[in-house]
Design brief:
This protein is of the alpha/beta class. The chain contains 18 helices and 14 strands. It binds uridine-diphosphate-N-acetylglucosamine.
């Protein structure tokens, strides 16, 4: 465990402050954009008359610079006060090690509240510690359900919500799920989507990014093809995928790769931002060389937050298995082929007004969705309270509850 920030002094001297003490937790890439607006909203209140002490703990599940550090810079938040240094491992290893290390922090710091976001292993592990240490727990992005227990995230969501004292939800679907599970309505607070706070705060900076400077970081030569595609106005597609169900089996990943090479990249340039898990599997299954050689594919390392926004806002179509991207596509009006059989974010689906179609990893279905969406008109879809002010509502509610 490494103590990184000013708060080490407070920790080591045993000095105690009055007022509300909050520990918030991040662990993996999708957490950083959810915690940034919360920290900013807390700061805004702390600089007024409220007496709040905040400590940010990073479990260290994601540790590569481009999966972690670059986000703190882009989102303009201070580096975490404490890094638990957990790293990669099996789920039991990650959750177990996180619990052991986080318990030490909670015992030493004695917070009034622990705030967790999303559904990664850090979310679940730190929620269990919070309640075992009898600390109040708030979950931002509560109530999402895919009803698919093969997804590790679904288990994390269910455990976290069952233990939370205050559940901040993004949509009426989430409220309904929690109601069906018997959560007390007083503990559920519909506040909107905190990811959209971050998107709106950074939209203009992302717009200013030069797309070519992002594409120039390509690891292969598909780049030239993209320049041609951009110049003749054909547009381009963006691909991200990292879910074990899509990338961990050779046969599944192999057929997806064939589709992206033979169908998508043959029609329009395809910008593929490669998650470390996916890169490892492509290498292991011997699929990487063909991807690298494909003239229509522009292969990028994981890109920063602003760069991803830029790619999304400029893309003609997105293929993804990420929940966050499905949401961002709605706000940018980018049609989205979702490489999953289900979603915990039904508001993003075309049939509910959104821009995403569920296609799983069966090629026929993906092909159909691609054909249907690629020429569809772009239109923005903004669900209720996805307005950029979610974090303010969260902090307001926490202060009210004390
Ligand atoms: C995790 C989250 C997932 C989220 C995703 C975003 C869980 C259960 N899953 O999945 O919900 O959508 O993050 O990325 O918490 N690796 C690196 N460098 C890193 C981190 C990981 O190389 O900084 C490699 C390692 O080989 C590791 C693999 O990526 O084994 C997978 O990482 P892991 O943290 O286990 O889960 P993700 O697939 O990233």
């Amino acid at each position: 465990m490494r103590f990184l920030g000013w708060s080490y002094f407070w920790y080591s001297t045993g000095l105690r402050r009055s007022g509300m003490k909050i520990i918030s937790v991040v662990g993996a890439r999708p957490n950083f954009m959810k915690i940034a607006p919360f920290i900013r909203a807390l700061k805004a209140r702390t600089s007024g008359k409220e007496d709040i002490t905040h400590l940010l703990v990073h479990t260290g599940q994601h540790y590569d610079d481009n999966m972690s550090r670059v986000f703190f810079q882009a989102l303009d938040i201070s580096m975490p006060d404490i890094d638990l240094g957990i790293g990669s491992g099996t789920h039991a290893e990650q959750v177990g090690k996180t619990m052991i290390e986080f318990e030490k922090v909670v015992r030493a710091r004695k917070p009034d509240w622990i705030v967790v976001v999303g559904d990664v292993n850090a979310t679940c592990a730190c929620s269990i510690v919070a309640k075992k240490e009898n600390v109040k727990l708030a979950h931002i992005e509560a109530g999402l359900r895919s009803f698919d227990l093969r997804m590790p995230e679904e288990i994390n969501r269910m455990v976290t919500d069952r233990l939370s004292d205050l559940l901040f939800t993004t949509s009426s679907y989430a409220n309904e799920n929690l109601g069906n599970e018997g959560v007390c309505p007083e503990n559920i607070k519909f506040v909107g989507n905190i990811m959209i706070d971050t998107l709106e705060a950074h939209r203009s900076n992302a717009e200013k990014i030069d797309l070519r400077s992002v594409l120039n970081t390509a690891e292969n030569t598909g780049h030239n093809f993209l320049q041609e595609g951009l110049e003749d106005g054909k547009g381009f597609a963006v691909l991200t995928m990292h879910r074990p169900s899509n990338v961990d089996q050779k046969e599944t990943l192999g057929s997806l790769v064939r589709f992206f090479i033979d169908v998508v990249a043959a029609e329009m340039p395809l910008v593929w931002t490669l998650h470390p898990r996916t890169r490892n599997r492509l290498e292991e299954f011997g699929l990487l060389p063909e991807v690298e050689r494909c003239r229509g594919i522009i292969l990028l390392k994981p890109v920063g937050y602003l760069e991803m926004l830029k790619l999304n806002m400029e893309a003609g179509i997105v293929f993804t298995d990420s929940g966050g991207l499905q949401e961002e596509c709605c706000i940018f009006g980018t049609p989205c082929v979702t490489l999953r059989e289900n979603t915990e974010r039904p508001e993003t689906l075309v049939e509910n007004g959104g821009l995403s179609m569920l296609a799983g990893n069966k090629i026929d279905k993906i092909h159909d969705a691609f054909s249907e969406l690629k020429d569809s008109a772009n239109r923005v879809f903004r669900p209720p309270l996805w307005d950029g002010r979610t974090a303010e509502r969260i902090v307001e509610e926490m202060l009210k509850r004390g």
